[in-house]
Amino acid sequence: MSIHDLEKAFQDKIDKEIKIEPKDWMPEAYRKTNLRQISQHAHSEIVGMLPEGNWISRAPSLKRKAILIAKVQDEAGHGLYLYSAAETLGTSREQMVDDLLSGKAKYSSIFNYPTLTWADMGAVGWLVDGAAILNQVMLCRTSYGPYARAMVRICKEESFHQRQGFETLLVLSKGTQEQRDMCQEAINRWWWPSLMMFGPKDSESTNSDQSMKWKIKRKTNDELRQNFVDMIAEQIKLLGMTLPDKDLKWNEERKHYDFGEINWEEFWNVVKGNGPCNKQRLAARNKAHDEGAWVRAAALAYAEKRKNKLNIKAA
Amino acid sequence: MLIPNPQSPIPNPPIPNPQSLIKATLSLADSTLILGQRNGEWCAHGPILEQDIAITNITLDLIGQARNFYQYAATLINQSENKNETEDSLAYLRTEREFKNHLICELPNGDWAQTILRQFFFSSFQLMVFEQLEKGVDEQLAAIATKSIKEINYHIKWSSEWVIRLGDGTAESHNRMNNAIDALWNYTGEFFIPADYEMIDVASLKVNWLEKIKTVFEEATLSVPENTFMQTGGKNGIHTEHLGYILAEMQSLQRTYPGAEW
């Protein structure tokens, strides 16, 4: 078959909603786009452990401590499934991790913001996981089979995290004045960065059209962002808090909330490495990796010794 | 003729007085919480993702065990002293001198060798204690022990495998294991020095514990140090300098916002 025929057969499959599997023929750009997206997603899970891990030692009750530890551990598990899904596209986890550590690969910019108070654990769960879920629910139907299946598992846990985040804030919202202030202040800081998680506007997004055609994505950045605003603008009423956007208003005609303009200059700055914690996050990952080098080497050496012993016994 | 068997089960001690039971329960709670707090520092910083998950799992088990003990201690205190203690007031509002954990639990994590070796020492001891609690007179402690033993068996399996892997891995990992033994060994004696409130005869557990350690060390090509001086004090509230910092951090929100619900 010519490339043209292969490409046509590939697109036909996608149009018929047949999942693409690792051994199937696929255009190089499809492979690369999926690899980039899945590995970025895996890196985001791993880097995302840092801002939340920051509060494990200070969680204000034993129950909250246990919930937070379990949550951060879930993120590590998500990272594992996603690295495995990405490996089916022909790049080793080691290579992907190296790309993260060298700064070549990206991860979600949201994790370059600091977690400054306990309320941030609630705001991150509710807003950041909430935004991530909208994207991930869509990805449960993405065209690449291993990614779609990883997403189904991850979505179940993420929606649980979002509820926990909301519940953390709900308790604060009913607490002392200091707790209510802490809650509002965390929402103020996390709201706009959460909106940025959906990426540039559709008119500015370079990868969007092809990704839609290949059904890697099924909704555009702006559609997902609007869904998020509509969801959160309702949920916040239950907290008795406000979103820091004077332009936020229900639009009866559109049947959606209108909302204010995102600070895109901030968005691009954080993407380029100028966020409050970019250097800190990458340094923490590099430190863990470097300090773990001798442990990984020892595990490998020991496994090798055991294999040799077994071989001698067998012979 | 009946020959006394040194391996025979230790007879159940008499029912302890309420104050001893409270102190003993708090001591069990404190050791698991403080070790959990230390292990939790690894979360997101482990040497490899799978092991980050494993040590975090152990952390979760330890915090879970601590909660069970604190909840029981709170019930006992409230019954005998007409107070209103909770698991959180006991964990977050007691001072260094009131904590009764083993010193080894509060030591800094050091490197991965030191962390997994401490886990192996502690879990191996903990299993023996919990097996006694399971057979003991206090039903609630027995129930907590039964529930925890399943977890502890896994902790021992995991940590002993790491002791062997690092001991018999590379020259560097072997050296690091020796350094870890050097750093931790003289904190293991405290396990077996009884405190006046303890309900089981901890001194009697030493032989079997040492046997377990020797077996694993042998496979790991490591040696048990000759009897050395042992540090003690934790079970009676005399701690290392480290505990104050652990509590300052752990208790910060409860101390800053007294009475708030979280």
Question: Which structural traits does this protein have?
Answer:
heterodimer, A: 315 residues, mainly alpha, 12 helices, 2% strand, B: 262 residues, Ferritin
Give the helix/strand layout.
The complex is a heterodimer of chains A (315) and B (262).
Chain A: H1 3-15, H2 28-53, H3 62-87, H4 93-102, H5 119-139, H6 145-173, H7 177-196, H8 208-213, H9 221-239, E1 249-251, E2 256-258, H10 264-274, H11 278-291, H12 293-314
Helix pairs in contact in A: 2-3, 3-6, 5-6, 5-7, 5-9
Chain B: H1 18-40, H2 49-81, H3 87-92, H4 103-106, H5 112-135, H6 139-167, H7 171-184, H8 206-219, H9 242-250, H10 252-256
Structural commentary:
The complex is a heterodimer of chains A (315) and B (262). With 315 residues, chain A is mainly α. Helices cover 69% and strands 2% of the residues of chain A. Chain A has a two-stranded antiparallel ribbon. In chain A, helix 5 packs parallel to helix 7 (177-196). The radius of gyration of chain A is 22 Å and the shape is globular. The model of chain A has no long low-confidence stretch (mean pLDDT 96). Chain B has a single domain, classed as Ferritin, core subunit, four-helix bundle (Ferritin, Up-down Bundle). Helix content of chain B is 61%, strand content 0%. Chain B has 10 helices and no strands. Chain B is globular. Chain B is an all-alpha fold and 262 residues long. The model of chain B has no long low-confidence stretch (mean pLDDT 94). The interface between A and B is large, with 46 and 49 residues.
Brief sketch in words of this structure:
The complex is a heterodimer of chains A (315) and B (262). Chain A is mostly helical and 315 residues long. Chain A has 12 helices and 2 strands; from the N terminus they run H-H-H-H-H-H-H-H-H-E-E-H-H-H.
